[in-house]
């Protein structure tokens, strides 16, 4: 493939030289490498699946779990016509795709669109720009993303290649979560009682729980490899509520990319990957030909209930050998090993070389300090199932996000009042020892649909401060419409004098989701050069459901090219309530 395209390039060179006197070379070359347009149809419908000895009907795209992969080259545009043949309204989000000027196709329910009603369809235009590597798509309404998700593979642009030797093969590994019950019923029940949602019954790798669960060992996912070859594994964490440690027995992992951008290679025995993140990993099949376990276990540094089970797949060498009496199993950090998780996260760096330059904003024009908390709301007569008969909630800067019934984008673009307010604060209501003995400080948040507005081209810095209010844990914060540089991470309260001195402004990782350490902080920076309405939220689904969300509105610049595009002819309607 690579050889032949190199040859093609050489021949092209000759032809172009020949034509050179007649035509402008530049414009031919431009046409030749012009981005492709692709069309996909996604059919959402209920299908029966059997796992863990029982069968249930669940919503998937084209009867597959995980769903179909979208494969593009960098810079392509894809139209996906989403046909909803399910029972309820759904939306689809293209996670990590920046969608320049085009929030209309981004997807979060009642933020950029209302749900696609059953028996209707909605065509979304997915505009790729500088992303290269692995991203994914998932439903963005209620908890439907548990079963409605799939990979997005972004290959290098034509006639360019990876910043590492071309792997012999590549494979996507989607980490998922299996609930025996109906996921929509589970979140509905939790929101009705105010308590914790039921935990899942298994994790999965490419839809299969693996050898450690009942009725599962016959269908464990197997990754076939040839001795001596190197493979690119595109790992996607599509789990709902738990971060994951991942490793392969006896094999080193070399991390080369994350969230659709390249990283400096990290050689490691394990990775920690949060829901929402993707990691591209090279693995060389250089051990004795045999079978080796590929394992994913939860990282959950919390007192909240979580699924404490382990999913496995098998790395299987091709060829003749005697199968081992027991398959080697990797040693992964224990479920609450915060140090192991933080150590790994701190290793991440942008590739930052000549062909992959880094431009970290330094002259900050918008400074935001944002507390990230799990909270409670009073229930009449202490009648809820949360602590002290309260209802569990969550907040950013002490505001628990209330989802509107008309999408924020439509309201912003059409100047509708009373859908949202513009007063999301740039600081919490007051400062206290956020990560110590917090007492009742900000235990009870206020409610609102408040958005954070910045100007076009603002240099934005956000310090996320994890708090010990409610239940402290690692929070994977995700921003739509952007990738951002993570310039610093630390434990305890952020110190605005000393901590900025340790910022990495040289090669910080460029990501769309960052795990804010439990009772710690993370600082991100980006240039607000994508006008639109962009959701920001914790990617632990129960926290997002409880209100750990807000919306970033980036105003238009002064020209058409720096302004939000006009809406498509059709958007799914919001129901009159
Ligand atoms: C999904 O199914 C529809 C109908 O069978 C088909 O036309 C479409 O190509 C499929 N899409 C993908 C991505 O496989
Ligand atoms: C799906 O599974 C349910 C429960 O096992 C069963 O009643 C139903 O007939 C199945 N539907 C199809 C289309 O197979
Ligand atoms: C969708 O259309 C099918 C077939 O016409 C019909 O049976 C079903 O009730 C419709 N669903 C909804 C929610 O309207
Ligand atoms: C949640 O778990 C409880 C206890 O196992 C069970 O009774 C309940 O039916 C489950 N809820 C749902 C929606 O599956
Ligand atoms: C799965 O496990 C069962 C029970 O331990 C065992 O009898 C069976 O051989 C296993 N099947 C496979 C494919 O490993
Ligand atoms: C989780 O599982 C591990 C290994 O089986 C066990 O050591 C640990 O106690 C469990 N933790 C919780 C909170 O259930
Ligand atoms: C984390 O990194 C520190 C400093 O390099 C090291 O001392 C510690 O052993 C590491 N902890 C784990 C669990 O890897
Ligand atoms: C940042 O601002 C300072 C002072 O206005 C200016 O001298 C410097 O060139 C700016 N740096 C960048 C990278 O824009
Ligand atoms: C979104 O808005 C619709 C009405 O347009 C409403 O039915 C739905 O419940 C809202 N979704 C959420 C999560 O609040
Ligand atoms: C905050 O609380 C922690 C834990 O109790 C304590 O170690 C720390 O000294 C406190 N910090 C301040 C500034 O009081
Ligand atoms: C927190 O507030 C509740 C209700 O106001 C009160 O009963 C409780 O004593 C307070 N706890 C602390 C530690 O202040
Ligand atoms: C620095 O942090 C303190 C609280 O620790 C706060 O009062 C002060 O306003 C902050 N300064 C800036 C410039 O953000
Ligand atoms: Cu969270």
UniProtKB/TrEMBL annotation:
Its GO CC terms?
Answer: apoplast
Please write the reaction equations for the catalytic activity of this protein: 4 hydroquinone + O2 = 4 benzosemiquinone + 2 H2O
Q: Which UniProt keywords apply?
A: Apoplast, Copper, Glycoprotein, Lignin degradation, Metal-binding, Oxidoreductase, Repeat, Secreted, Signal
Ranges for domain Plastocyanin-like? 45-156, 171-319, 427-557
Q: Where is the signal peptide?
A: 1-35
Q: What is its EC number?
A: 1.10.3.2
TM ranges: none
Q: CDD domains annotated for this entry?
A: CuRO_1_LCC_plant, CuRO_2_LCC_plant, CuRO_3_LCC_plant
Claim: Signal is one of the keywords in the record:
yes
Tell me which PROSITE patterns the record gives.
MULTICOPPER_OXIDASE1, MULTICOPPER_OXIDASE2
Cofactors, names only: Cu cation
Into which EC class is this enzyme placed? oxidoreductase
Which GO terms are recorded in the biological process aspect for this UniProt protein? Answer: lignin catabolic process
Mention one GO molecular function. Answer: copper ion binding
Cellular location of this protein?
Secreted, Extracellular space, Apoplast
What does the record say about how the cofactor binds?
Answer: Binds 4 Cu cations per monomer.
Q: List, alphabetically, the InterPro entries matched.
A: Cu-oxidase-like_N (IPR011707), Cu-oxidase_2nd (IPR001117), Cu-oxidase_C (IPR011706), Cu-oxidase_fam (IPR045087), Cu_oxidase_CS (IPR033138), Cu_oxidase_Cu_BS (IPR002355), Cupredoxin (IPR008972), CuRO_1_LCC (IPR034288)
Primary subcellular site in the record, as a coarse category = secreted
What is its biological role? Answer: Lignin degradation and detoxification of lignin-derived products.
Q: Of which family is this protein a member? A: Belongs to the multicopper oxidase family.
Q: What is this protein called?
A: Laccase
Q: Which organism is it from?
A: Morella rubra
């Amino acid at each position: 493939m690579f050889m032949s395209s190199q040859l093609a390039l050489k021949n092209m060179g000759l032809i172009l030289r020949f034509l050179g006197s007649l035509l402008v070379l530049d414009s031919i070359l431009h046409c030749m490498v012009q981005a492709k347009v692709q069309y996909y149809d996604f059919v959402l419908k209920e299908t029966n699946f059997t796992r863990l000895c029982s069968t249930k009907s669940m919503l998937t795209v084209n009867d597959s779990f995980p769903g179909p992969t979208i494969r593009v080259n960098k810079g392509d545009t894809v139209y996906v016509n989403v046909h909803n043949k399910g029972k309820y309204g759904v939306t689809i989000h293209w996670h990590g795709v920046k969608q320049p000027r085009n929030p209309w196709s981004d997807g979060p329910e009642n933020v950029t669109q209302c749900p696609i009603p059953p028996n209707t369809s909605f065509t979304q235009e997915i505009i790729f720009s500088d992303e290269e590597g692995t991203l994914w798509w998932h439903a963005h309404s209620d908890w439907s993303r548990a079963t409605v998700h799939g990979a997005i593979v972004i290959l290098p642009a034509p006639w360019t290649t990876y910043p590492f030797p071309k792997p012999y093969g590549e494979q996507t590994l989607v980490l998922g979560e299996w609930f025996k019950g109906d996921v929509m019923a589970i979140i509905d029940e939790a929101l009705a009682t105010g308590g914790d949602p039921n935990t899942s019954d298994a994790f999965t790798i490419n839809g299969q729980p693996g050898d450690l669960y009942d009725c599962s060992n016959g269908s464990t996912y197997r990754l076939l490899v040839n001795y001596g070859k190197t493979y690119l594994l595109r790992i996607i964490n599509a789990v709902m509520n738990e971060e994951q440690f991942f490793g392969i027995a006896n094999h080193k992992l070399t991390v080369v990319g994350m969230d659709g951008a390249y990283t400096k290679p990290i050689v490691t025995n394990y990775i920690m990957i949060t829901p929402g993140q993707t990691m591209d990993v090279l693995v060389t099949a250089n051990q004795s030909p045999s079978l080796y376990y590929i394992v994913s276990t939860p990282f959950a540094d919390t007192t909240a209930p979580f699924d404490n089970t382990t999913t496995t797949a098998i790395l299987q060498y091709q060829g003749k050998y005697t199968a081992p009496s027991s398959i080697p199993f990797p040693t992964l950090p224990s479920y609450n090993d915060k140090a192991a998780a933080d150590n790994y996260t701190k290793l991440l760096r942008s590739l930052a070389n000549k062909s992959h330059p880094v431009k970290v904003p330094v002259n900050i024009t918008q400074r935001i300090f944002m507390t990230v908390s799990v909270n409670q709301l009073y229930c009449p007569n202490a009648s809820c199932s949360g602590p002290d008969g309260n209802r569990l909630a969550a907040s950013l800067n002490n505001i628990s996000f209330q989802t509107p019934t008309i999408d924020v984008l439509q309201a912003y673009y059409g100047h509708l009042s009373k859908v949202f307010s513009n007063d999301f604060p740039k600081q919490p209501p007051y400062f206290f020892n956020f990560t110590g003995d917090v007492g009742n400080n900000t235990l009870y948040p206020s409610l609102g649909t408040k958005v954070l507005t910045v100007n076009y081209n603002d240099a934005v810095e956000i310090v996320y401060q994890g708090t010990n209010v409610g239940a402290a844990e690692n929070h994977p914060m995700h921003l739509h419409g952007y990738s951002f540089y993570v310039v610093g991470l630390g434990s305890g309260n952020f110190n605005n004098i000393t901590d900025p001195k340790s910022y990495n402004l040289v090669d910080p990782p460029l990501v769309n989701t960052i795990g804010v350490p439990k009772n710690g902080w993370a600082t991100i920076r980006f240039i607000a050069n994508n006008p639109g309405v962009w959701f920001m939220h914790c990617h632990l689904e129960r926290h997002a459901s409880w209100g750990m969300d807000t919306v970033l509105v980036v105003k238009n610049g002064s020209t058409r090219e720096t302004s939000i595009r006009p809406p498509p002819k059709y958007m799914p309607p919001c129901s009159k309530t």
